[in-house]
Amino acid sequence: MSEENKRVVVVTGAAGALGDHVVAHFSKRGERVVCWDLHAAGHGKLVEDKERSSVWQQQVNVTDAQAIASAAASVREQLGPIDVLVHCAGGFRWSKIEEIGTDDIDFLVDVNLRSSLYVVREVMGPMKSRGHGRVVLISSRSTLKPGAGEGAYAATKAGLNALVSAVADEVKGVDVTINAVQPSIIDTEANRQDMPDADFDSWVDPAELASIIYGLCPAEEHPINGALLVVAGRT
């Protein structure tokens, strides 16, 4: 596959446990992957990853609309149109509603909902104009039945679900799709440290979740649009 025929894939939260697996899954299959993350190299500029071929780093704050617009413009200028967006950036806070601080509410709204609105807004217009694009967001199974302490978190992820459903309706008639995966607890080092007594084998394998995400982003025309796909761990 020639370089110009390889798709351009933007992965947000690329330095996180899930994002890293998503980057690896796409790059190993010949895609050109741009890693957007607060901890990435580049300070807003697009720089090649020295350790991985076909991977670029770009330090981006996805809660900053102007930073997203600037980063996307750099991607389009240097690599071409964005074909795929996988929005892995997000965050979690556990707190009973009467105890949650304003800072934590702002954090959840910003990283889970505001960032989703910003990144989808940035890529959707060009994708619709070109008649092709794939977007996958990361929701949560907790939106189906939030437990105690998950109210604020689940509310922001439920807003993300609403965004997927609405935008999916807006792109009918063109080969642009937007879907979300709704995993239960993902098996990450951070989650293991937070819940040391849990049954890790029952959690979602991030590599398997990355494979599912990749399956929602085929190059050929794709019928799945507006799906909120529950991904449960082994029980």
UniProtKB/TrEMBL annotation:
Gene3D superfamilies referenced in this protein's UniProt entry, alphabetically: NAD(P)-binding Rossmann-like Domain
InterPro entries in alphabetical order: NAD(P)-bd_dom_sf, Sc_DH/Rdtase_CS, SDR_fam
Any one Gene Ontology molecular-function term assigned to this protein's record: oxidoreductase activity, acting on the CH-OH group of donors, NAD or NADP as acceptor
Signal peptide: none
Family: Belongs to the short-chain dehydrogenases/reductases (SDR) family.
Name of the protein in its database record: SDR family NAD(P)-dependent oxidoreductase
Organism per entry: Lujinxingia vulgaris
